[in-house]
Amino acid sequence: MNSAEAIFNFLENGQISPEENFYYCQTRDRASSRLPKWMSYFQNLGLSEHRSAILTAIIGELTNNSFDHNLGKWKEPAGCAVAFEKQDDLLNIYIADRGQGIISSLGSSLTATLPPDIILKKAFEERISGRAPERRGNGLKFVLKHLQESNNSLYCVSQGYIYSIGPKPKSISEEHIQRIFSTLVVIQWSIK
Amino acid sequence: MKLNIKTFGDFLTSRPAGREAALTSLAYNSGLKGAKNVSLDFSGVIVMTPSWLSEFVQTLKEKGIEKIEFLPSENPTVISSIEFIEPEIE
């Protein structure tokens, strides 16, 4: 089983893979404690300290979002899964959870009823949060800014809807997309 | 009053950790008692997110710190986190 298959097994069936590059993080602390290891992995792949730090911060924001917006809303197992897959000059990073999904999370705080794909777009591009009136909502903007500045890609599927900058990862099929009831984010990061 | 952020760790990413760091500082750092101005020194921080810094700064301000200065840093995640939260605290 490769990393992508392990992630889809987690998303669809809640299975936790023993795959080497698959990390199940039941708690926020478990995810945070693995960031130094992941940053070392990026540096070992040849990324500079500067780029490794940015990529680690991006993963930190995305994994924290899983916990910020889904506590008490999971389909078991709780938490998120992170997996890495190197394909030629690309590192694919998968971040998945079995939570309520971005559209449900953000939609609950919007006053207007909007189409799901617009809600998903707003989550990434506007400074808003499903946890209003708490002053939040800059995490995904930070993620987007740094991916755009570094010419890397993001492909997010939440509750069957898509937000992307850059191409669809080869590992994701239309069948996968339709079956994702929660959230999957895939980052494609150049390691040239 | 200068706060050395590295004392909270070198990977600073989550909102709960940012809030806890601020509350702990306020409780146990005698130099912060009654202080109105704080300078944040990011030396030694490896990875920071705007979520951690936002929560840290918001908590200090809620508890009476009026002016927060960010000392210069060369770390790209620190620089970017400061840029992201500055509109929130102005």
Question: Your description of this structure?
Answer:
The complex is a heterodimer of chains A (192) and B (90). Chain A has 192 residues and is α+β, with helices and mostly antiparallel strands. Chain A contains seven helices and six strands, in the order αβααββαααββαβ. Chain A has helices at 3-13, 28-44, 49-70, 102-107, 116-125, 139-149, 174-179, and strands at 22-25, 80-87, 90-97, 153-158, 161-165, 183-190. In chain A, strands 1-2-3-6-4-5 form a six-stranded antiparallel β-sheet, sandwiched between helices. In chain A, β4 (153-158) and β5 (161-165) form a beta hairpin. Chain B has 90 residues and is α/β, with parallel strands linked by helices. Chain B has three helices and five strands; from the N terminus they run ββαββαβα. Chain B has a three-stranded parallel β-sheet with strand order 1-3-5, with no helix packed on it. In chain B, α1 packs parallel to α2 and α2 crosses α3. The mean pLDDT of chain B is 94. Chain A binds chain B through residues 28, 32, 35-36, 39, 50, 53-54, 56-57, 60-61, 64, 67-68, 135-136, 138-139, 141-142, 145-146, and chain B through 10-11, 13-17, 46-51, 54, 58, 75-77, 80-81, 84-85, 88.
Structural shape of chain A: globular
Largest sheet geometry of chain A: 6 strands, antiparallel
N-to-C series of helices and strands of chain A: HEHHEEHHHEEHE
Helix count of chain A equals: 7
CA radius of gyration of chain B: 12 Å
- Residues in β-strands, percent of chain A: 15-25%
Helix fraction of chain A?
A: 40-55%
Number of helices of chain B: 3
Fold topology:
The complex is a heterodimer of chains A (192) and B (90).
Chain A: H1 3-13, E1 22-25, H2 28-44, H3 49-70, E2 80-87, E3 90-97, H4 102-107, H5 116-125, H6 139-149, E4 153-158, E5 161-165, H7 174-179, E6 183-190
Antiparallel strand pairs in A: 1-2, 2-3, 3-6, 4-5, 4-6
Helix pairs in contact in A: 2-3, 3-6
Chain B: E1 2-4, E2 11-12, H1 15-28, E3 37-41, E4 47-48, H2 50-62, E5 67-70, H3 76-89
Parallel strand pairs in B: 1-3, 2-4, 3-5
